[in-house]
Amino acid sequence: MKKMMFALFVLINSVFVVSAQSDTLSVTLENVPYPYPVKFLPLKIEDQDLRMAYMDIKPVVKANGRTVILFHGKNFGGYYWTSVIKALIGKGFRIVVPDQIGFGKSSKAFIHYSFHQLATNNKNLLDTLGIEKVTVMGHSMGGMLATRFALMYPDKVEKLVLENPIGLEDYRTFVPYMTAEEEYQKELKTTAESVKKYYQNSYFPEWKPAYDYLVEIGAGVTGSADFPRYAKVAALTYMMIYEQPVCYEFSQLKVPVILFIGKEDRTIVGKGFISDSEKAKHGQYQVLGKETAKKIPNCKLIEFDNVGHIPHIQIEATFLKSFLETI
């Protein structure tokens, strides 16, 4: 009888564990479907063999001879570009969508993260694919990377498109310094509730159920046995953003720039470390957009009222119409 009771207890407990972990994602998102086939570029960085995931999507109509590369934000991967990809391939563009090293389906490496290194990785990818010139579009952190890429490789960039980029201000001037270890300990405390709260307070003026999948992916990795590695990489990439501003170099851009700004965006990297009075002075995209556009020699600013951090999701049709008209 005791053996039967113990066996029943183990069975019930096992069922509970499986159920509790049913929403767990791997830290390289193997169980997250991407809209198009994913390939991998082998890279060797700091004597480590790494893999950079990417999608390479051909146009579904007559090719126009142009290519767009899409750079995702810090909390995202290639999965959230679906509507943009479909719109562009329907107009004859070839689209390349990388997951940067440290993000999405790519390797979660313990390396020194820098926008220079990430830009070099993407140059490597484009060279491997035989692509000589691209329009570079970057959202959020991807905007910082896209800016660095355009500064490093201006001859390879046809146009630079920035969608609510972070780094429009130097966070070091008002966000207290945190060591990578301190940031790592903070990342370890991530929950679905904390992810959703941050997205609600910074990204979207009004939350809709359609945005829940962003939270499910963003928080799904916390149940993985490899989550500490994921959290460590998240801390290292936070330090990259904090320590490597691009806002002082906007005036050096030599390519045409289109700057899309959702004016209700309130994103601040390190927002949880500053007072309410500091929050009121920073992350004000209705001001930052105009200030940034003035710094860039050849910039077209397009602003959206009542729109937050991710225009291509919040106002998909409106954003895509404007996007296609300007690129």
From TrEMBL:
The keyword Transferase does not apply. Pfam families: Abhydrolase_1 (PF00561). Residues 1-20 form the signal peptide. One of its GO terms (molecular function) is monoacylglycerol lipase activity. Keywords: Hydrolase, Signal. InterPro entries: AB_hydrolase_1, AB_hydrolase_fold, AB_hydrolase_sf, Epox_hydrolase-like. Residues 67-171 form the AB hydrolase-1 domain. GO terms for cellular component: membrane. Transmembrane segments: none annotated. GO terms for biological process: acylglycerol catabolic process. This is Alpha/beta hydrolase.
